[in-house]
């Protein structure tokens, strides 16, 4: 049986507005349920806060706690460790990208040098062919 809210009217609206709690306070919700064996259970839930898990407490009719999980807040050292790991990951990623770009630049430089060498080789072969042609021309004319 859950608690029912009173019907809304002008007086209740102003009271609820005045009694409204700030967002950072805990809100507790109680629920009574019956499990599969027919035992009534009481569930208590608090609102989750930032970096925490919801609290859930269940009690049977005798009042013994069946299951309780407490809020788990991320400790600051854990958060710092996560931040450091992200930063290191990004640094490693940037280093790898820089290494890839350097390698691509080296490949382009090698291609450029090989193209220049090929061009120079072709010029030399052309000059050599001209010289041979001139020699053949002289040998035919003589």
Describe this protein's structure:
With 142 residues, the chain is of the alpha+beta class. The chain has a domain at 10-69. It is 53% helix and 17% strand. It contains 2 helices and 4 strands; from the N terminus they run αββββα. It has helices at 10-18, 76-141, and strands spanning 28-34, 40-46, 55-59, 65-69. A 4-stranded antiparallel β-sheet has the order 1-2-3-4, with no helix packed on it. Strand 3 (55-59) and strand 4 form a beta hairpin. The radius of gyration is 41 Å and the shape is rod-shaped. Mean pLDDT is 75; it is low at 10-22 and 48-56.
Which structural category do the helix and sheet elements fall into? alpha+beta
On the 0 to 100 scale, the average pLDDT is 75
Helix fraction?
40-55%
Order of helices and strands: HEEEEH
Main β-sheet description: 4 strands, antiparallel
N-C termini distance? 125 Å
Alpha carbon gyration radius: 41 Å
The residue ranges in which pLDDT falls below 50 over 5 or more consecutive positions are 10-22, 48-56
- Tell me how many strands there are: 4
Q: DSSP helix count? A: 2
Oligomer: single chain
**In one word, what is the shape?**
rod-shaped
**Percentage of residues in strands:** 15-25%
Strand order of the largest sheet: 1-2-3-4
